[in-house]
Amino acid sequence: MSGAATTDRAQAPATPPAGLRATARIRAAADGRGGTALPLLAGEGPLALRRTRSSSAAEAGVMLVGAMSAPLGGDHLTVEATAGPGAHLALASAAATLALPGRSGEPARYDVHLTLEDGASVRWLPEPLVSVRGSDLRVRTRVRMAPTARLVLREEQVLGRTGEAPGLLRSRLAVERAGTALLDQELACGPGAPGGWDGPAGLAGHRALGQLLVVEPAFAGSPPAAAVLGEFAVVTPLAGPAVLVTALAPDALRVRELLDAACRTYGR
């Protein structure tokens, strides 16, 4: 008597992601008493969230606190924040974010998704992002907002630490208002970026850059005028109730000074 032997093949384990995956989720809602509640405040991994006091009684403050070094190459970090109807949210970070090289050689990703519903406002004012030598980071900020919502958004990038060459940084900012694109722009700089990024038509040798975007429904009736702020900063009205301030400088301190002054003028 003979029998056929069967052998089950061992399933090969799935290849784990090359880096860390973490998401911070925030939802702000009007509390019915003139303030803003935070029914959802959940962080993961390096994205720890803390409620803070805000300068306005109507606004809820949230601080993003880095709980570990990130993003490293291969990491994918995401911040998702929604301000419901009539809610007011102020988002900030406790320290600069350092993009660091990882062992896998893969790029890191840092996504920010903001949703602003009717009558809501969001202030997203993080500390600078520092592109460290050997790093490869792709940053994407996407905003979807109702026509009655208000946004103040600041981005600052520093190319390398003191005396250090930068890594590769790719950044995209896309803002959609009432279902229509208000702003969609991309930036690439560092080794591997398209040629000319550091030339006279690009950063002109500067290592710190930033921008301030203010979307304000009141601008529809009285839009800000185009202007030059110092030698390397400009004010650009957009095709909508919004203004974009762009600044270059030798260091992050000077960029912050320029953007703070612009925020006092346009972001009140």
From TrEMBL:
InterPro entries: UreD. Its main location: cytoplasm. Keywords: Chaperone, Cytoplasm, Nickel insertion. Pfam families: UreD. It is found in: Cytoplasm. UreD, UreF and UreG form a complex that acts as a GTP-hydrolysis-dependent molecular chaperone, activating the urease apoprotein by helping to assemble the nickel containing metallocenter of UreC. The UreE protein probably delivers the nickel. Belongs to the UreD family. Required for maturation of urease via the functional incorporation of the urease nickel metallocenter. This is Urease accessory protein UreD. It comes from Streptomyces avidinii.
